Amino acid sequence: MGISGVSASGCYQSQATSGQAAPVQEEQKALADALKEQEEGQKSLVEMMKEAREKAEEASKKRDEMLKKTTNRRYGDAAIMAYSKLARARSAGEVDAASGYARRQIAQLRAAKGSDPDNADRIQAAINQLQKAVNRAGRKKRELSQERLSAKRQARLEKEKRTREAKRLKHQLRSRQAQRVIRESGYLREAEMDNRIQDQLSAAKLELRQQMQELADKTQTTVDAAVQQYAAAAAEPAPAPEISVEA
Questions:
Q1: What does the chain look like in DSSP terms, one character per residue?
Q2: Predicted local confidence at residue 97, as pLDDT
């Protein structure tokens, strides 16, 4: 009878201990799963931070390339060179050479416009100036032809002893030539002024893009700081749940 009571008591204690161990194992498993999930989340945050840094570096690299491209390529110089050639032209052949140079530059700039979209406005302004140079070259060619005819007529009048008419024609010829020189120097100043304006516009646009990029970088830095704080908080081990062994 006594042995039976002891056996029953031992069996009851064993069952009680087994019943208490099951919840403990479940809690430990839940804790392990939570720690594993936190570790995986922390890894993903680190990857996000790495990706953000890579994007910032890539944006900085693109900005530097854009600045270098804007500094090294002066598209407006082509128009200035075309007008310089046109102003120096003294014959129809030289005018054709200046016009041909302008046409070649137009073709090159149109091709560059597709490969350099950041400077599309600047390139188009240079193309417009070069197109004006082509049109003005045609006008100068006609004027040179008229001046040549006037010079021949003047020589004929002098040969015929028509001195007064020859002097009047000579005066008119020199006046037209002087006006043409003044007009052509104005063309050159116009191209130079337009080039300076385009430089200022390009610099202003570049500065605006840099400010926007800096603002984006600052915003990204703030996000990175928040992510780091969250990662640090997530890295702290969660408090272990209290395990009660009371029956």
A1: -HHHHHHHHHHHHHHHHHHHHHHHHHHHHHHHHHHHHHHHHHHHHHHHHHHHHHHHHHHHHHHHHHHHHHHH--TTHHHHHHHHHHHH--SHHHHHHHHHHHHHHHHHHHHHHHH-GGGHHHHHHHHHHHHHHHHHHHHHHHHHHHHHHHHHHHHHHHHTT-HHHHHHHHHHHHHHHHHHHHHHHHHHHHHHHHHHHHHHHHHHHHHHHHHHHHHHHHHHHHHHHHHHHHHHHHHSPPPPPP-----
A2: 95
